[in-house]
Amino acid sequence: MTVRHLKTARSAADRADDDTKVRAIVEDGLKDIDDRGDVAVREMSEKFDNYSPSSYRLTLPEIAALMARVPDRDMSDLKFAQQQVRNFAQAQRDSMRDIEVEPMPGVILGHKNIPVQSVGCYVPAGKFPMVASAHMSVATASVAKVPRIIACTPPFNGEPNPAVIAAMHLGGAHEIYVLGGIQAIGAMAIGTQTIDPVHMLVGPGNAFVAEAKRQLFGRVGIDLFAGPTETMVIADETAADAELCATDLLGQAEHGYNSPAILVTNSEKLARDTMVEIDRLLTILPTADTAGVSWADYGEVIVCDTYEEMLAVADDIASEHVQVMTDRDDWFLEHMTCYGALFLGPRTNVANGDKVIGTNHTLPTKKAGRYTGGLWVGKYLKTHSYQRITTDEAAAEIGAYGSRLCLLEGFVGHAEQCNVRVRRYGGINVPYGGPAPHKDDLA
After folding, report:
1. Is this prediction's pTM over 0.85?
2. 3-state SS string for 396-420
3. Which of 20, 77, 388, 415 is the most exposed place for a label (fewest CB within 10 A)?
4. pLDDT digits (tens, 9 = 90+) for 293-312
5. H helix or E strand, kind and range, residue 381
6. Which sequence positions are flagged as catalytic?
7. 181 class by beta-carbon count within 10 Å (0-12 exposed, 13-18 middle, 19+ buried)
8. How far apart, in Å, are the Cα atoms of 257 and each of 183, 207, 351?
9. Going by C-beta distance under 8 Å and a sequence separation of 6 or more, which residues neighbour residue 104?
10. 342-387 pLDDT, tens digit each
């Protein structure tokens, strides 16, 4: 059994060089925002977006005027898509319960799911106006009942994109700013003279946005570490042909110049036919200038002998989007463990997931699917535990165990927190700094 690479991507070393350059630019930009606030934000907006309005925050009349420019059919489609996202997010939220249990008499344990108190949602629009990203971040935060939702999007062709602004407003954003890139992420997380900082950042973006979120993690929470869009097609000859495979690969490669697109198959004929079909489609695809570069530099074709090898390769790569078109899609659903989202069967496709079907499209990349899933309503909720002891007997019994276990670790001060309760509620004279006796020793 062998795994054969008919096409490989750029080396990891080359990709690391790109990351290093981005890291330095972002670090300098965030420090400038930290030092100079609004002045730095305006200079960066002028430099990178050639955009300098009197205020970057849109007023309600400005929002209404922009929304009025969205054609009725587009607005109807937008609302339909947002409702699907809300419906699924609400179903997820309903699955999360506050709990309270009494594991032993007099001991109450529980947890509460509390919304993050403020979130900054980034919605890309510099190259493509990512209307759907507003549903995924803003509307989902609204379902989670986040009290303060702010949203930033860069200008598109020199002005706010009406459809993106409409999606943000309908999604429930309380503040909308026309800001992009490092300046948007820095302003939301660090704060400026006119923008109060948030507790959490969410949303996709280019390499600079992703790196800014990475550098700010800890100062604020983030949804996940996101890199360029990734797609993988797992296919065999029983369920897919070259046209389907090539279309699904290029459909995501058009996101940017560095979007990995990978075919994993057990059919060398399908693999080679797909490569030929990709070359054909690139002659007619309007976004071929972008998709073609991604395919040339980041496209891969991997041929395996068995489905087990295909599974192992897929889990090792842990791609953001995984389109499965085989005679055993449910087998992959059952056994795959590392990915962003699965799209099962030839009737399904990643574009539906990106735009309308209802699942969230902000997903882990760069192998992060090994340890996290994507953005969902639960990301906006903090699960906080609480404890309560309601009887003297429970206070003394738990306290005695705690006393001995604290001393096992050498924490005398900890032990005394337990001992004082054993003395007060159990009537047992425990020597200061000593272990409380076990109940069997008192019999």
Report:
1. yes
2. HHHHHHHHHHHHHCCCHHHHHHHHH
3. 20
4. 999 999 999 999 999 999 99
5. strand 381-389
6. 320-321
7. buried
8. 22, 11, 18
9. 394, 397
10. 999 999 999 999 999 999 999 999 999 999 999 999 999 999 999 9
